[in-house]
Structures are given as C-alpha cells and as structure tokens.
Amino acid sequence: RDFCLSRGLGDVYKRQMISRILGFARDILMAAVLGAGALTDCFVVAFKLPNFFRRLFAEGAFSASFVPMFSITLEQGGRQKALQFAEEAFVFLAVGLFLLVGLVEFFTPALVYIMANGFTDDQEKFNLAVTLTRFTFPFIFFVSLVSLLAGVLNSLGRFAETAAMPIILNMCLIISLMFGEHIMETPAHILSVAISVAGFIQLVLLYWVCQKAGYRIKIRRPKLTPRIKKLLIIMGPAALGAGVIQLNLLLDMIIASHLPDASMSYLYYADRLNQLPIGVIGVALGTVLLPFLSRSIANGDEAQVMKSQNQAIELCLFFTIPAAVAFLVIPFDLVGVLFERSNFSPEATIQTSLTLAAYATGLPAYVLAKVFVTGYFARGDTKSPLKFAVVCLIINVALNIILMQYFVHVGLAIATSISAWVNVLMLCGGLILRGHYGIEKKLINRLLKFTLCSLFMGVVLWFVQKQVHFFIKGETYQQIFGLIILIFSGIAAYIIATFTTQAVKKDELRDLFSKG
User: Fold this and answer.
1) Which of 13, 78, 187, 291 could connect to 155 by a Cys-Cys bridge, CB 3.0–4.6 Å?
2) CA trace torsion 87, 89, 95, 98 (10° rounding)
3) Based on the number of CB atoms within 10 Å of its own CB, is 181 exposed (0-12), middle (13-18) or buried (19 or more)?
4) What 8-state DSSP symbol labels residue 228?
5) Single pTM value for the model
6) How confident is the model over 382-390, as a mean pLDDT?
7) CA 315, CA 152: separation in Å to the nearest integer?
C-alpha cells in the first residue's frame, strides 16, 4: 500500500485534530480570562522560552539526529542494539536537561532580560515574566524526554500514542483555566504551573507505552559511548541549524517586546489559529516521514523515497492552500467568534485578524519546509538546512526592522511568511540539484487544480459571509451557528471542486481518512 496509507498517518491526523480542537478551546478560555494585554504578554514569554529550548535541543537537533540513527540501528542491528542505544541516549539527554533547567532557574532574570528586554521599562511586568518562566521551564525536561520516547515509537511504526501527547497538555491547561483561576495570584500563574504538570504526565504515560511495546528504557550510568559520540557529531550542525531557526523566533520576540502592550498577544492568538493546519498536517507528515525515509534510504530504495516525498507534498498542498485562502477571506469572522468576549476587545479582534491574514500568506511554506527538511535529515545531512536557515534569519531580521515601522506587529508576521517561502525554495532546490528529489508532472497538475479549487472556495466563502453577517454579529449561539455555516460551506465547495476537476478522486479521499 502507499506510504501515506500504510504508516499510520490516519491515526496521527485524528489525534492531531483532537489536540487542535482542544487547543482552540484552551485559547478561547485564555482570551476570555486573560484577554490581550500585559498579563498575556508575560505568559506568552514564559510559555515560549521552554519551547524555544525544546525545539532547539530536543525536537530540533536531537530528534533529527536520533530518529535516523535509531531507525537504521533497528533495521540493521536488531531490536536489542536499538534498545541499548535508546537507553544510552535517554540518560545522556536527561543529565543534560537537568543541568540546563537548574541553570535557567537560577539565571531566569538574565534570560528574560535578554529575550524580552522591552519589558525592563515596566518592572512589575518584568518580574511577572520572570516568575511565570520559573514555573514553566521544568516543562522542557519532561517534554524533551517525551520526544526521545516518541522517536522510539515512531521508528516502530507506532504513531498514534505520540500524536496524542499534546492532548494532555491542552486538557491540563483547560482544567486550570476552568477551576484554578483563583488558586494563585493570577490565572497566568496557575496556567504556568499546569504546563510543567502536563509535561510530567506525558513522560509517565509515554514511558509506560514504550514498556508495553517491549522497549523498557532502563536507567543506566551516563557514558560517552561511540554511538553517543556519533550522535553528538551529527547533532552539531543540526543544533546550529535549529538554533538559527529558533534565533529567528527569538529575535521576533525581542522586537515584539518593544512594541506597544498586547502586540505579543495579537501575534500569539493569530499564530494559534495558523498552527491548526501546520500542526495537523505538518507535524503528522514530519512524524511519519522521517523514520520511513530513513529506513527506505538504508535499504537503498530511492524510488520509494522519491514517491513518498511527492505524496507528502500533495497531501500538504491539498490541505494548506484552501486553509490559507480561508484565513485571508474570513479572518475577522474566525477571530471574532472564537475570541471576542470578556477581556478580548473588538480592537484585539481587528489586530489579531490582520496578523492572521499576514501569517496565512506563508502557511503552505511552513508545512512544505517540514517535508523538504526531512529529506536532508533522513540522509544524515544537517549542514545544508543550517546554511539555508542562516540566509532566512538575515532576511527575516532585515524585513522585521523595515516592516515594523509601517505595520507594527503585522509587519513581523509578513516578514516571517516571506522568509518561510525563501527557506522552502532553497530546501527544494538543494534536493533537486543533488538528484534526491524530482517534481512529478502529476504534482504540478494537482498544484494548479488545488489552487483553482481553493480560489473557487474563497469566492463561495465571500458570498456566504455576506449572507450570515446577521448571525456573526448576534448572540453567542448565533455567532457559532454562522461560523459553522461558513466553515462547512467552504469545505463543501472545496471538496466538490476537487471532485469536479479530478484534483482528488473519491477513493483517495476515503482511503486517507480510513483507519490505516
């Protein structure tokens, strides 16, 4: 069977979708309880800092190096050698994380000063950001070990359990918002504590799943074995590449901290909506594609590698092009219905909607990058993505400085989208020049059809939007009803158009969502 149907992609999609729906519920509650202002800005900084290090060391450099090595060891050396390697890596990572968390907890004020130095003008805001960061930072210890265990399970072809882990985080945050608002000084305090608690629960559950799968990770003495040395050598360029990407995000945060209050909040809420297709499609494709390509390359099956990459790109474009069009056509309706209540003002809706539209222009690029970079990581090449990331960093910083003068926080989102497209072009071009990727005529044909169908959907959305305007401006239940009509009208229009143009066949769509 085709790669996309036989490697558990359907299960990943389902769990990612559940997670994103819960994420929406969480963000709706956050918008109502925290609103868009200084308190949310501080929480956003506290939440982003552990995620910054997680993406840099764990899900970035470590996973990109560990998963291919583990997959190849499993394929060529057998289960016992693969398990031994996983144990060595687990202990090595745990010790490094423990030291990192300890250092950050001690030097938190200095870290916040560097990463959000715009807060220093308001001592109360700065102190709050420091306190919240100390609550959230242990999350990196737990979630980074979770990423290692997830890499083991993904290499075994078990994707569903790891894809379900974000559900736990969202559930913990929702419960804290609903029932813990008055337990601590502010709702942001209890939210920050809930993040670290969620990380601990994720680690315990995934460790148990690995044990049930026959891969019980034993705790052994840390030792710099030849495999760990090789892992570190491969990790070096990957860490630098991930570091450049995260530095990009860090610079965005530093610049945003100097903008007026609530700028970070607008960027956060817009990014959360933008992350729905990125999370569901991009994460699912990256999760399944990396171990699969690694094993195909180890077996010398380049034809299957090429085919799998094109299938992944087709799936990416099928979902992300219409999502981008929808975010450009109805951003005010989406943000208004989902967030505008209690402490989230109409002005916050306008600013968040404009930011969402700016992010949407780069939406396909964010997901395509996850597909193309996998083609490098699966071959053990972590240097090329680093070079491309450096170029994108320079472009993004230059555009940030220029565009923020005219568009404030929206300018940061525009710069991010432009640099994302530059990154995709370089990643794709590099693979083509090396003979590791070829664009099929079928893919170009489908790209044109997906774009045409998405534009048709956009026209339908624009027309339906005029008809449901009364509901969107009404009571909460009317707003929800109007938004449901909008969303399902868009989905129906796009599906009908893809069937009519034969961009997608009915059996392909049915198989994609079947239990794989």
Assistant:
1) 291
2) -100
3) middle
4) H
5) 0.72
6) 82
7) 25
